[in-house]
UniProtKB/TrEMBL annotation:
Protein name: Response regulator
Keyword field: Phosphoprotein
Record flagged with keyword Lipid biosynthesis: no
Originating species: Methylocystis iwaonis
PANTHER family in UniProt: TWO-COMPONENT RESPONSE REGULATOR, TWO-COMPONENT RESPONSE REGULATOR ARR22
Gene3D superfamilies cross-referenced by the UniProt entry: 3.40.50.2300
UniProt domain Response regulatory: residue ranges: 8-125
InterPro entries with a match to the protein in the record: CheY-like_superfamily, Sig_transdc_resp-reg_receiver, ST_Response_Regulator
Domain of life, source organism: Bacteria
Pfam families: Response_reg (PF00072)
Modified residues (4-aspartylphosphate): D58
Length: 128
């Protein structure tokens, strides 16, 4: 059984189109266990009740942004080691530096391709 069949990924983005594009990309890679959250607050609630193995999160969101979510995930014992991939726009260098300080595992610059998504995932979970 491949890792793609076993891993549960939480996709967090306030834009429905972005959530669907990421979900479609993950499905193209063979990943079927995908949870979707519309903001960091909803994602944090989901991680408290049914933790995912990996989080792909946008930075700019209402209620709780990507950095706030990352900080909360890192401060909560049961989730502090969950890998996080941050989605950023091209001009968000300072945001990326903050994410690195908070312990982000990888990042993707929007827009991205399925190939770059696969590379970002493989850098964390290995080849699949």
């Amino acid at each position: 059984m491949s890792i793609a069949n076993q891993i549960k990924i939480l996709v967090v983005d306030d834009t429905n189109t972005s959530r669907m594009l990421i979900r479609d990309g993950l499905e193209e890679l063979g990943i079927r266990n995908i949870l979707l959250a519309k903001d960091g607050e909803q994602a944090l609630q989901m991680m408290m009740s049914t933790p995912a193995h990996l989080i792909i999160s946008d930075v700019n969101m209402p209620k709780l942004d990507g950095l706030g979510l990352l900080k909360a995930i890192r401060e909560y014992g049961p989730t502090k080691k969950v890998p996080v991939i941050m989605l950023t726009g091209r001009s968000e260098r300072a945001v990326l530096e903050s994410a690195i300080k908070l312990g982000v595992n990888n990042y993707l610059t929007k827009p991205f391709t399925v190939a770059t998504l696969k590379k970002a995932l493989e850098a964390i979970i290995g080849k699949f």
